[in-house]
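Here is one chain, start to finish.
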Amino acid sequence: MGKEKKSAPLPASSAGLLRFFEDETKGFKVDPKIVVTVPSSLIVVSWLMDIFLIP
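Its structure:
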């Protein structure tokens, strides 16, 4: 019993949505700022190329 994980009980939730974010998954960890800025900047660059390079 010494190896059991001790944590506070979670509040009741429907369909276990609160427990979903408790699990740690494998894979890349990317900052949300990067996820928003990279696609946004690609869209802006695409628009600028369309406006200035193609008459």
